[in-house]
Design a protein that fits this description.
single chain, 7 helices, 17% strand
Amino acid sequence: MEFPFNLKKSSASSTNTKVYVATFDFEIGMIMAAGDDEFLYIVAFKDSKNVKDIFVKVAKELSCEFVNKKNKLLENFEVELKDYFDGKLKNFSIPIKFFGTDFQKEVWDLLYKQDYGTTQTYGDLAKALGRSGSHARAIGAACGANGHIIVIPCHRIVASGSKGGFSSGGDRKEWLLQHEHKYS
């Protein structure tokens, strides 16, 4: 399989920590996932504009080597992804770990709890975090840095009067929203 960038160059050198990488092909596109035996660290569309940055960040945080192989955690995640796309799964149970600023982590924690099939505006999410609606752009930036696409459902956050942006493309955001609406 081909990666959209050289994983070896993104991996830290002289390390024993291995993070396994697998790619899953769905109607909506190729999804890359990376995890070790404990946590899922990355879920991203292979062609997302920020996929390389996400891998580089994880490599830096974990001082890991990426290995192109499915482990048990990734096998279990694949089953959950299939169930999600079949409309059978509303909440993922695979343990995740993410790296970011304190503000990004606050946003992602709240997004993780966002109900399946619902949407909320960036401004409303800012208010739910105890900030003014003027923090909507910062919420959008945190969504753009999300390294667990679909699992941390940033696609459920929309702009006032429009769908808003999405690091994996507006068409995918619309597809995910329609998919969840269909099974809600």
